[in-house]
Structure formats: structure tokens, C-alpha cells
Amino acid sequence: MNDSRTLVNALALLGQLGVVPRAAASLRDRTQAVGDSLRAAVIGDIPAFSVSANPEILPELDRHAQSHVREIVRLLGGGAVGDFEFVREHARRRAEQRFPLEATLHAYRCGHKVLSRWMREAANHVAPASLEHAVAALADFAIEYTDTVSTLCAAEYVDRARALADAEGDRRTELLNVLLSGYDESDGRVAALLRRGGYLDQRLSFCVALVRSVEPFEMESLPRVQRIVDSVGSAMAAPAIRTLLGVRNRLVTAVFSDLRRLSGWTAPRAELSARVRAALMVLGPSVLAGVSGDQPSTAFIPRALQEAGVALDFASVSERVSGYPELSIRRLLLHRAAGELKPALPAWMPALAQADAKMQGTLVRTLRALADADLNVQHAARTLGVHANTVYARLQRINDLTGRDCQRYHDLSEILLAIDCRQAIP
After folding, report:
1. Average confidence score pLDDT of the chain
2. In the CATH scheme, what is the code of domain 340-424?
């Protein structure tokens, strides 16, 4: 219950001056006109009411204005200060309609002017012994009344908005978990949840993104995680791609969806995953992201989650946003087989790795340059910025260590694959 002692004291003073209850009769004569004046003042001063597309806003404003007029008549007629349930209900409705709280409170300030003038006129008709004191006391009452209802309205609005946000957050969390974990299509409750969320439209494409800080330990900090969530939401606001955000397994997880095409007669849009990757590039160098490929329905979102996880493994400071569709088959095979590669490495691999380390990586760089040059030693030498004889000497050194001829395609491929496998081993 709101502390309304100051309002009670203001009413008590009006009773001592003789305004209460005699003013009530005069006030009742103009209740409809004052209610209309309240409505006109609010609409004239606050554009939010007139520009709102919600058809219930103005009728509810009319009813609320009349409720205030009747309440003031009741109080000045000798009634006790009540719980102002009509104010609480109005605040709850405004929160549910997502009507701005600032505009709602501003309406009370506008109404204060109209109500004060109405009550002053009533004081003149009552003609108490001390008109000056009566007018001053009515002005105090009007201020206290406006403060009381404004405080009640703000508190109820915030409580209701918070409750709605919590409920919406729970619904979105449940929806996110259902989409990412997969679901039984025969489950009617899940189907209803997806239908209400708008995820069963057959024209939609889906993709998943996983985002984390460059430093994994920072994902232990809730404020840091929330900043990443907010950044992802802001980054995706411009492209008008629908986003469902949450945090799972210490990763910021997002399910994106958009129409593949508007109808069967229109051209398909650019890949959703490509637009998502471009949008996430604005997140900056402190986060890494992995993005899946496009999926044709919600049934494939668990696969998209796996793809995003693989892409995130390849993300680095030099490639902050990694897309699964851009990963080569070679990289994917190495990633999937990393746990089984160590026993399969050739016997000459340790010697080659040790020699390459002593030469500060020049042997491996030479092999990669030769592969990029299609086995053209002269071209590889120019790429490395060395003489061709230097390249020949390095290749001979590698041949001696491995027993393989680096200038033969199959041997070069085998050596490079062994090097990549060693690097892929955790």
C-alpha cells in the first residue's frame, strides 16, 4: 500500500476549512465537462496518445479521466483515501500495451492543471470563511493527489513490465531450447509453441551462431556475457533478420530466421548465413563467432548448432567470424579426425618438426609456397623473397628427413597433410 499520509492530511485540512464535504455538490455539476477537458489536454500536449495505432488507447484514456473525476468528488465529499485500484489497473494495461511510461506520467501532469482549476472554481462556489486559505489548501491537495497517483502508476507499471519481461524471457528460453535440442513433431504442445512463435512458416530459412569472448574465462562473467548478448542483438537489428538469443553452455547462442523468398514468383534472397556473418563482423576484435549454413526448417536447427560449433573452433583473431559453408573439406576432415591422428603420424614427422623449429619455420613455409606455386620452384622463391637455390637446398633437406621427393605432387601432398595433422592434434 502506498504511503498516502500527506494526501490524508491535505483532506483533513480541507475538512477543517469547511471545503469538505460541501465542495462535492459543486464539483458534481461539471464532472462530464471536466473529464472531457482532461482528455483534450492530454491529447493536445502528448503526441503519443494521438499517434498510437492501438484502438484501445483513447477509449481507455476517456474512462481513466472520468475515474479520476469521480474519485476526487468522492474524496472531497468526505470519503476516505482508498487503494486507487483503478490507477493500478490503468498502469497494468499500459504496461501490457507497451505504451510509454513517460507519456502516462506526463498525462497526470497535464491533468493536474485541469483538476486544480476545477477545484478552485468549486471553492469559490462554496464561499468558505477564508477563501484564500481554502484555495491554497485545494492546491496542496491537487499536488498531493497527483503525486500519489503518479507514484502508484509508476510502481505498478514497472512491476507489471518486469513480470511480462520475465515471462517473455522464460518463453524465449523454452523456445530456444526446443529449437536447438530438436523436438518430436507429434508433440502438440511444442508445435503450438513454435506456431505461436512464427517458426513453422515453410518459407523460412534458419541458421545458428555461437559467440564467445576471445578469452574463454571472460564467459564466466555475467555482465560480460550480457554485453555480448546486447551487442549481437544490436548488430542484427539493422538487417531485419529475426533473432532468438540466449546463453547455453557458456556461449551466446542465436537462432536467426528470415524468408527465403516472398512467394513462389519471387527470386530467392541472398543466403541468410552470409548476411548474418556480415552483420556479426561489427562486433569487434574482442569476440569470436561461428555461423552455420542455411537450414530449410526447424527440424535441421540441431544440425545448424553442430555446424556453428565447428565453425567457432576455427574462429581466431585473424578470422573472427568463421562460417561453416566456407570451411574446406580438408579442414573439416582434420577437425573431425583430430583425436585419432596422433598414432597415424609417419615416423619421420618428429625429425621434420624439430628441424623446422630450428630453422624458425622456414621449411614448412617453403613447402606451402611450393604447393601454392603449383610446384614451380622459381615462383615459390619469388613468393618467399629468396634465391631459387635456397629453395632447392631446403627441399633437399626435407627430402633427406622424410625420404619423400617434395617436387612430386603426391609426396608433397603427403608431407603437408602430415604437418596439418600434427598441428590439428590438441
Report:
1. 85
2. 1.10.10.2840
pLDDT digits (tens, 9 = 90+) for 330-378: 878 777 776 666 677 888 988 999 999 999 999 999 999 999 999 999 9
Identify residue 246 by its one-letter amino acid code.
G
**Residue 271: how many CA atoms within 13 Å on its side-chain side?**
15
The span from the first CA to the last CA of the chain, in angstroms, equals 62
| Domain positions in the chain | 5-163, 201-327, 340-424
Architecture category of domain 5-163 in CATH: Orthogonal Bundle (1.10)
* pLDDT band (50, 70, 90) for residue 192: confident
What's the Cα-to-Cα distance from 407 to each of 238, 368, 404, rounded to whole Å? Answer: 51, 12, 9
CA distances from residue 399 to 194, 292, 348, 362, 404 in whole angstroms, order as listed: 61, 41, 11, 15, 5
Q: What CATH number has the domain spanning 201-327?
A: 3.30.70
DSSP state of 29: T
- On the CB side of 222, how many CA atoms lie within 13 Å of its CA? 0
The model's pLDDT over 17-63, given as tens digits with 9 standing for 90+, comes to: 888 887 777 788 778 888 888 888 899 899 988 888 888 999 999 99
**Residue partners of 176: CB distance under 8 A and separation at least 6:** 244, 245, 246, 248, 253, 255
34 residue type, one letter: V
| 18: nearest Cα among 170, 184, 135, 161 | 135
Please report, for residues 35, 60, 152, the alpha-carbon distance to residue 161 in angstroms, rounded to integers and kept in the order given: 28, 19, 14
List beta partners, residue 251: 248
Q: Are 210 and 314 in contact (CB under 8 A)?
A: no
Sign of CA dihedral 218, 222, 225, 227: negative
What is the torsion angle, in degrees rounded to the nearest 10, for the CA atoms of residue 258, residue 251, residue 184 and residue 261?
10
Helix (H) or strand (E) holding 209: strand 204-213
310 in Cβ contact with 335 (< 8 Å) = yes
How do beta strands 287-291 and 242-248 pair?
A: unpaired
C-alpha distances out from residue 329 to 125, 210, 333, Å: 91, 21, 6
3-state helix, strand, coil in the chain (%, to 5): 65, 10, 25
CB 355 within 8 A of CB 366: no
